[in-house]
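Predict structure. Chain length: 445.
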Amino acid sequence: MTFNVWYGGEQVSLDKVGAAIRAADPDIVGLQEADRNLERIAAAAGMPYVDPRRRLLSRWPIFDSGAGVRTETGPAPYSTTALDRDALHAWVMVRPGQVVAVSNVHLSSGAALGELRRAETEPLTALGRVAANGTPVFLTGDFNSTSHLDSGEDGPSVSRMLADAGLRDSYREAHPDAAASPGFTWTPGAPHPLADHEKHRSRIDYVYSAGRVETVASLVVGEAGGPSTDIAIAPWPSDHRAVVSTFRVVPEPAPPLIVATPRLVPQDEPVLLRTWDPSGPTWTAVIVRRGGSPRDALTGVRGMPHDYQRTIPLATLGLEPGDYDALLVGDDGAVLRRNAFTIAARGARPEIEAIDARVRLGTPIRVRWRGAPGELRDWVGLYRAGETDASNYLGFVYTEAAFAGEASVVPDPGNRRLDPGEYELRLLQDESYVVLAKAGVALVR
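Prediction complete.
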């Protein structure tokens, strides 16, 4: 299922967001605009597994295909915030030792941003290479773009790029006749009709697949009486309809996997390790300082049998706050997979500071933060000192879901000229206007 839940799912009712997911009865959900509420939506939907950096919910265990943190430096495209380019997908274990690859995306909105959306799509074409050997791959998302399969246009487009990479549009596979089954997802006429919504009907939300996958069905979830609604919820809680597609798949044998949850562990609280070691009937996992080797183990378990326990909580009592790795270790002592997590100091609060107290106008403003929640689109905004309009920021940068880090904010005031004076840097939570910390900075000539 793909579902843009509309600014945190609270514009109408978060419970109705959960009801919509339950009514569609998906196994895996890609959410867009979860904004601070991913875990709350998961609970409302009855989905036990969550991938916070990809905005995925699942009935089945989710494992990171990368290290659990972004290791590349510099800002990422909006479509791949907080992710390395070679780790855009998660592994979902649909059967013991059998996985499918799942990714989720939200492209930039705006009628004049077609070229930007195509640039944001380019990294996603790597998913076609994941599927090249038959591995089942799924990509959910709000693409803010119509499909060439609907319009018949031959020019460059997001949908054309994905098709050329080997990804298939499941709704159009299930409903080849675009005139008979338009599958509109933007915009519903309820519960709060948007201006001219009748004139702006389009299909911009998709479930793509690739590899050993056969599309069985695809349905639109939306408001009662909607022009494309197959599964109705009243009141409908979003400005997008959702899409739920059903597939037959031949899963891939799972590689070595380990995931530590939660990503941010309160000091002295346990961390849960979930594993899969395909090399034998037992597995070994240890906890080390970030980047450490098995010989640096601080705690762990060895020779645990797969047949009755693949998940285990480990105590962090006595471990200092900081960054750690959970390691899956082979019989020969080699690291098969590592996954990052962080222990937060008891009572720690988010902090932010300008690295340079005085910054020349027109130059980037360097900022440092710590104690951030590490959610997908935590961000740092530049404001005039004392600004009371939270939406009136003058520049911003995403933290790339890092609990602590450094970045540069480039002022982007549009047509407004920045004058010398006092300004504020604010750390805000997950693409919302919830301020977690702030610090002053002076702009000078």
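Summary: The chain has a mean pLDDT of 95.
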